[in-house]
Amino acid sequence: MAESSLRDKKKEATRKALAEAAFGLAVERGVDGFVVEDIVTEAGYSRRTFANYFSCKEEAIANSLGLDEYLQPGDQFEFSPQDHTPLSTIEIFIRRSFTINKLKRLNQLISLSREHPALRLYVTGALKEMQDFAGRGISKEYGSDYPPEYYHILIGAVFGAILPVLDESFDVNLPEDEEQIEKSNEFNQYMDTVFAHLRKGFN
């Protein structure tokens, strides 16, 4: 068991190193400015190792989102249904999960994907996986207390409000650093407004 756990940790570290190298090169040179060989050189691995984890550089770039950090089955949904509603639970999850570093990374990935359809496919897939995870967690926690379509509509509304900020189609400034995200800022004010509106129809 210990050996298996150590092996899994090494695999995850390798995957992260390759993904971070790919993302760093994409930011520095643009998606068209490097090839897989540059990624493995930067990360210190072989081309064969890269192929064990990713099919192309676009997939590696999108994986720098670090979905495993969002999708850990930790305490995000360990709230008593008696004390919370599905909406308040997803609000806690969103506010805990979307740190400034993750918000900026999402923003950068979406910006990079605008000009690169191949990358957009993988980034969209990663965002969909995050949304599906939140939906599964909410529906599992509250089960038949609400109809199935309720969870689908709720998750769609929440993520639908966040994505326009990340792709900059709606003008809301992101916090500059981790200290600022704890204080009053445009993004927190926007999220307050989003959930205030949603509470009118979701509670």
From TrEMBL:
Keywords: DNA-binding. Residues 35-54 bind DNA. Residues 12-72 form the HTH tetR-type domain. GO terms for molecular function: DNA binding. InterPro entries: Homeodomain-like_sf, HTH_TetR. This is TetR/AcrR family transcriptional regulator.
